[in-house]
Amino acid sequence: MGLGDKVGNAGRKLAGKVKEATGRANGDDRLRAEGKRDQLRADLRQAVEKVKDAFKKR
Question: Which one, 3, 9, 29, 40, has least CB within 10 Å?
Answer without folding.
Answer: 3
